[in-house]
Amino acid sequence: MQTHTHIDEIRGLLANMDELFAGFRGWLKRQYDEDSGGFYYAPSSREMPGTGPDIESTAQALGILERLEVPLPAEMKRGLIRFFQRRQDAASGYFYDADPLMREDEVMVSRAISYSVGALKKLGGQPLYPLPYEAKQAPAYMDSPENYRAWLQSVPLVNSWRGCDRLSTSSEYVRQVEPAARREAYARAAFEFFAHTQHPQTGLWGEGSYYVRISGTFKLHIFYDRFAVPLPREEQIYESILTALRQEEAADMCYIRNPIHLLSYMKLDIPAHELREIIGITLTNMRKLLRADGGFSRELAHSPTAPNVAQVKPGEYYPGMPEAVHIGGGKVEGDMNAGTQALLIRAVCYRLAGIEAPRLL
User: Fold this and answer.
1) DSSP letter assigned to residue 176
2) What is the rounded distance in angstroms from the CA atom of residue 332 to the CA atom of residue 46?
């Protein structure tokens, strides 16, 4: 009987979560730029001189439209294909935004490849030029498995989130290595390093608050997932997630999304009363980031100026880190990164509850 009560409460929480998206479609529509075929990161991005719709936000918008089951007109598809193709550099094969500082951030550059190639595939297009590994433009650390291992060991984990993101994005290059036997040598170097650096009690990697370390662990799970390797110490990670939810403030939409996404990936048998608690805390945290324009902010105070640099908060920068890329005004407004995460959180919460998610109108 108690389990049924918790399930009924979970259904009520999920219905309340759906209500948060009442103005979301209107917000998304206002981010579209017909001239370029892309989407802006946030409303204030239109006011930023020398910028425009960016790769990451446009790919995320495409994912949102797919999740909302919005059919794309043929002309819009063609515009989106042109948007990504025009941002590929012919010489290197990389995809770049207008801001030159973006090229200095290896995470943003690597993610731009993944976002662009994935979006083009969805849209029925393809890159115009060979990708970086094919063009012999992969980072120098990919010259050999030994160099790759040395690079892994050199990445600072004083901020688990940022460090693990850098480690995880290297999977994009590892997956392109041929032949398969050579690829396996790179993958083996990575998994040996990850096993050596995972904390045995918490199941997490690196340093920082629980949310920072869970976010780093979420980033590394992407590497594990891409090579179909189970994430080690799942029970310890689960207990760390409960600790974070109960004790820390979720000051960033990623702190709401990453634990939920990790739970979905690990596929643990979560007791009904704990699932009700998890979804309840998640809903409360999401409400705090809903904005008057119908979108969601990445952070409690305001949206950050860009999706990726927000991983590292003031006081957490380390020597050699590139300057910030600005593609928005950092205002109290909805931003594309938070919006795509909010929708994913909703989908994952329904999945964890074993309930089919209704279509959002």
Assistant:
1) T
2) 15
Tell me whether residue 156 is exposed, middle or buried, using C-beta atoms within 10 angstroms of its C-beta: 0 to 12, 13 to 18, 19 or more.
middle
Q: Which two tokens stand for residue 204?
A: 């997490």
- Determine contact, residues 333/303, Cβ cutoff 8 Å: yes
Residues pairing with 95 in the sheet:
88
Which is nearest to 38 in space by CA: 89, 77, 95? 77
Angle at 22 between CA 241 and CA 333, to 5 degrees: 70
Cβ contact 263:241 at 8 Å: yes
pLDDT (average), residues 297-317: 65
Beta-carbon contacts of 52 under 8 Å, excluding residues fewer than 6 positions away, are 33, 36, 38, 40, 45, 98
Q: How is residue 135 written in tokens?
A: 């063009």
For residues 88 and 79, give the distance between their C-alpha atoms in angstroms, rounded to a whole number. 15
Which H or E run includes 61?
helix 55-67
Please tell me the distance from the alpha carbon of residue 333 to that of residue 244, in angstroms, as a whole number.
Answer: 26
Q: Cα separation of 342 and 21, whole Å?
A: 9
Mean pLDDT of 92-117: 88
pTM summary value = 0.87
3-state secondary structure of 38: strand
Residue 307 corresponds to which amino acid?
A: P
Percent of the chain past pLDDT 90, that is, above it, reads: 79
Place of tokens 């908060």: 313
Contacts with 163 (C-beta within 8 Å, 6 or more apart), sequence order:
155, 156, 157, 205, 206, 216
What is the pLDDT of the chain when averaged over all its residues? 91
